[in-house]
From TrEMBL:
It holds the Pfam family UPF0227. SUPFAM superfamilies: alpha/beta-Hydrolases. Gene3D superfamilies: alpha/beta hydrolase. This is Esterase YqiA. It comes from Motilimonas cestriensis. It comes from the Bacteria.
Length: 192
């Protein structure tokens, strides 16, 4: 029996050191040490990020996969759900990041890695090419969103994922306050 693989895709300008990643990684280590936990530092450029996800999946042929994606990671996890047919949990996911990230066109410095990189309008087109619309496997997605998200309009995600399991909480913020309440239910939904 091959070990199940949980792939956590963090958000734009985030890292594997984010609180949600750390909470999930510790939970898996304590409660489900049979699960292989993968959370790489995601590249800043969209096609590089997607290529990294594909390369991780390619390392585990025949393994059962599950995805968690936060913010931009939720957008990419929706693509992973479509490509690989795996269950995915989306935490305050970006729905149209190619509209949001135009504010970052030009030179940027990643706040965690200090990598200097340049975002171009072509990268926005690359991001749009990764969009899944309509959602292909809504029954395999669980949307976790908080109405107090100060960065993304939670209603976009609710509309896009209206056929999926959905949890909408009052208040909160973009980081999804209290994610640790969902660690067990998330793993059960991912069916790993």
């Amino acid at each position: 029996m091959l070990a199940p693989v949980l792939i956590y895709i963090h958000g734009f300008h985030s890292s594997p050191l984010s609180l949600k990643v750390q909470q999930m990684q510790q939970y898996v280590a304590q409660q489900r040490p049979d699960i292989i936990f993968e959370c790489p530092q995601m590249p800043c450029l969209p096609l590089q990020a997607w290529a990294l996800i594909e390369s991780i999946v390619a390392r585990y042929p025949g393994h059962k996969l599950g995805f968690i994606g936060s913010s931009l990671g939720g957008y990419l996890a929706t693509k992973a759900n479509a490509e690989f047919g795996a269950n995915a949990v989306l935490i305050n996911p970006a729905v149209r990041p190619y509209e949001l990230l135009v504010d970052y066109l030009g030179e940027n410095t990643h706040p965690y890695t200090e990598q200097v990189y340049t975002l171009t309008i072509e990268h926005m087109a690359d991001l749009k090419s990764l969009d899944v619309d309509p959602v292909e496997h809504p029954e395999r997605l669980w949307l976790l969103t908080q109405m107090g998200d100060e960065i993304l309009d939670y209603q976009q995600a609710v509309h896009k994922h209206q056929l999926s399991k959905t949890t909408i909480e009052q208040g909160g913020d973009h980081s999804f306050i209290g994610f640790d309440r969902y660690l067990g239910p998330v793993l059960r939904f991912l069916d790993l």
